[in-house]
Amino acid sequence: MAELMQNLSAPGHRAVAAGKEQRDENGHSLAGRATSGGLLLARGANGSLVFLSGQGPADPATGEIATSFEDQVRQTLTNLAAVATSADGSLDDAVRVGVYLRDMANFDVMNRVYGEFFDPPYPARTTIQSDMPIEIEIDAFLAIG
Prior knowledge:
Strand content: 25-35%
Order of helices and strands: HEEHEHEE
Oligomer: single chain
Distance between the termini: 17 Å
Shape: globular
Number of domains: 1
Radius of gyration: 15 Å
């Protein structure tokens, strides 16, 4: 654990600061978009822990958010998978997932789509209601190697 904490505090780790809205080169909000800056990597003797920053429902190519909640969940998980891939991992490496829903009435839809992206044994998951401006955000911890 001491080695892991030293690695987390080492120079060169990237993380998105909590509470700060990220913007692109044109000043547009990155809320809900997949970003490669959403990674924090910790290397240990037996592999790596990768902490994926929360991803939202915007299509990274267009910035558009689908109107159906089901499509928003699917896009959010697609964005999360893309960030996992950029860290040389996949959602199969997830050991913990955090889901943030604006409306808990959408839990069943989220859970159904979630099952399209994860197979048993499922990673530990926490689902929390949030008053964020988007309907869903998902983050994850990966164990690679």
